[in-house]
Amino acid sequence: MVGALRSTLRFVFSLLLALALIAQSASAFAQATKPTTSAAPAAPAVAEEEAPDSPRTSMQSFLDLCDRGRYEEASRYLDLPRGAEKRGEELARKLHGVLSERLWIDVDQLSPLPRGKKDNNLPAGTEELGKIKDAKGHTVSIRIVRHEARTPEDEARWVFAQSTVQNVDALYASLKVRWLRDHLPAPLLEQGPWALYYWQWLALPLLTALCLAGGRLVTWLSGFFARRLLAKWPWSPNFLHRLRNPVTMGFGVALFWALLPYLGLTLKAEDFVGRALRALGYLAFFWALFRTVTVVGDELSKAQWAAYRPSVRSLTSVGVKLGKVFVAAIALMVAFSELGYPVTSIIAGLGIGGVALALAAQKTVENLFGSVSILADQPFVVGDTIRVDTVEGTVEGIGLRSTRLRTADRTRIILPNGKLADMRIESLGPRDRIRFATKLPISREANVVQLRAIVAEVRKRISEHTNVRTDDVFVQLASIGESSFDLDIAAMVETRDFSEFARVREDLILACIESVEKYGTRLATPVRAVLSAASRHESTDKPS
């Protein structure tokens, strides 16, 4: 129970932190990617001066006052009907709630001129901001009219028309969270970061925890039925276990999306949260796909048909790694696209950055292509024993950058794939037998009869060994050395195990020595050893 609670709290905080970071990065990126003016000389654009009594200035002032909770001052921008003066603050608060949830007002699109637009097919001094349906389904036009200064203390401005103000109560009744707006303390009704009210910031963790709990429940139920349906497949338990977290995230995002309308978000906040949820939904999908690639790679490498194909295991390992990189790249691109990032600019930047990166990381790129070349040509596979220059070892793994060898001394040697692809590689793994070869020096005291007998005896003893291929036994008197008659001996040992070969090699060498001793002679002593012994003997015989 405690572990589940910790997991729930960790997920809640992680989701909130992810939303905050996504929003912050999106805002910073949007500011960074705004088009800048060119430094080249151009025809000066004639900017419309924003008048203090224009529709743009008036609506901006009304929205700013409402966002700060100063509804009494904001009521100055309402053309209140007679007898409704005392409800000005209430009507301003309700109208602001309606506009926040039902109609997005882009003040930059409003006229900066004192008289407003002249080609809007409306009476002079009138502009329409949009239309909203009330609780009964009636369409209400949201209009503003010009208010002229009537006293020296008054000022000209644009205000919401009486026809709009008279329908504020009916429009407010269509809001889903009006009860909360009417009963929550005023500080909680103020807007915080990213156009979210403070009460909505408090509700987000609770909603996230609720969606997480629901997601876990739905995941458990779906997993229960999935285990029944996939019971005959041996890989299903591992597959379902790996998908549990991304599926929980996906169901949680889906439940959050379904409950989002009941949070009463403003249009601006709803747009941001919707984009963030879509991004998280795509990340959950690609997370599940990422895990699926891992499971498929594991199952392929452990399959019975791949057990005797080391090359398949090597290709599977590298293929899984490349698949993960591809899935992660696509996931990030889709998430950035949902958050409003210019993906085409990112791809173009990645292309330019990729060239610079390739120049700065030539060795890494060389190793990457070297690994592709090794996997395509397959000069060796995992488990083979290879010899590269003076290095000999067993291949333990072939990665994207390097190949790991385990030597006979149990040390690990890491060779970059870029260099390895260009080197001379001797693969000892594919051989079906191992060649035994040695030189047998016989003392010069032996005569011809003894030499013939020794050659025949050595050939017989080697041919009779159970692990030696009889047709490939070679025993011949090869040369006359300074102090010996030299026999060249070679044979093919029927084994691929080097430990078994070492045992057979010991038997063959002992058989050669026994054959020499059998016919009354001995192995030759090197001339250097004889001279060294003689010099030591002379030095001891000299008088002191």
Secondary structure layout:
Blueprint: H1 2-32, H2 55-67, H3 71-74, H4 88-102, E1 126-133, E2 139-147, E3 157-160, H5 162-165, H6 168-172, H7 178-183, H8 198-229, H9 236-259, H10 267-302, H11 304-307, H12 310-338, H13 343-360, H14 362-377, E4 385-388, E5 391-398, E6 402-407, E7 412-416, H15 417-420, E8 425-427, E9 434-443, H16 448-463, E10 474-480, E11 484-493, H17 498-518, H18 527-541
Antiparallel strand pairs: 1-2, 2-3, 4-5, 4-8, 5-6, 6-7, 9-11, 10-11
Helix pairs in contact: 1-8, 8-9, 9-10, 10-12, 16-17
SSE order in H/E notation? HHHHEEEHHHHHHHHHHEEEEHEEHEEHH
Question: What share of the residues lie within helices?
Answer: 40-55%
* Overall average residue pLDDT: 77
Instruction: Please report the distance between the alpha carbons of the first and last residues.
Output: 97 Å
Largest sheet: 5 strands, antiparallel
Q: What structural class is derived from the secondary structure elements?
A: alpha+beta
- Per DSSP E runs of 2 or more residues, the count of β-strands stands at 11
Broad shape: rod-shaped
Give the count of helical stretches.
18
Oligomer: single chain
- Whole-number tally of structural domains: 4
Alpha-carbon Rg, integer: 43 Å
User: Which range does the strand content fall in?
Assistant: 5-15%
Low-confidence stretches: 1-47
Lateral arrangement of strands in the main beta sheet = 7-6-5-4-8
